[in-house]
Design goal:
This protein is an alpha/beta fold and 194 residues long. The protein has one domain: 2-Layer Sandwich (archaeoglobus fulgidus dsm 4304 fold). The chain contains six helices and seven strands. Strands 3-2-1-4-5-7-6 form a seven-stranded mixed beta sheet, with helices on both faces.
Length: 194
């Protein structure tokens, strides 16, 4: 007779968190993006990726190229993703507040995370919170921060307590480098070709 048990973690009930990663290699013309979904244990559930080559025209301002490429990448990732996360997390130095406050509207909370408040532009439409440990991390929520008793809040707390709030961005970048290698990726890893 099998041993009766119940999974105390109830991971399925908490749902998934989506990590939106945008990477711009040094030459600046190719933008790589990933939407990486994980459960409350940080286990990978889905990895959606794409890349976009930007125009090299004198008619474009540099900020407009970045905003345009980011918007196109994000919408392509959303179109391809098969699961719906409870919330999205992105890095504030990669995604500006305008993207989700003004240009793309999603039916879930979006969190932009950043460690240096002075270098992060934010909107009055975002709700700011700060995690103090181990280092101050500023979270900018739009359209609102998940309520204290919500599944989203419990999922976020599980990821924070496991030290997984920002770690999935590293795996997403590793995945992007695997599917879309570029010359500077080899330089970053310290490997030499000869």
């Amino acid at each position: 007779m099998p041993i009766p048990f119940r999974d105390a973690d109830e991971i399925e009930e908490l749902g998934t968190a989506g990590y939106l990663k945008i990477d711009t290699p040094a030459e600046g013309r190719i933008f790589r993006g990933a939407l990486f979904l994980v459960n409350a244990r940080g286990e990978p559930l889905e990895f959606t990726y794409n890349k976009i080559e930007t125009p090299s025209s004198f008619l474009w301002r540099q900020d407009d190229i970045r905003r345009h490429a980011t918007r196109r990448l994000v919408t392509s990732l959303f179109d391809t993703c098969q699961k719906t996360p409870k919330f999205l997390i992105c890095l504030a130095n990669e995604i500006g507040h305008d993207l989700f406050c003004n240009e793309i509207h999603v039916a879930m909370p979006v969190c932009r995370a950043g460690s240096s408040l002075e270098s992060i532009s934010h909107s009055s439409m975002e709700i700011k919170t700060t995690l103090e440990e181990p280092e101050p991390l500023h979270l900018f929520w739009f359209p609102e921060q998940p309520g204290n008793e919500s599944l989203e809040h419990h999922l976020l707390n599980r990821l924070i307590s496991a030290g997984m709030l920002l770690e999935p961005f590293e795996r997403a970048l590793a995945g992007l480098r695997e599917v879309y290698p570029s010359p500077e990726d080899h330089a970053d890893s310290g490997t030499e070709e000869g």
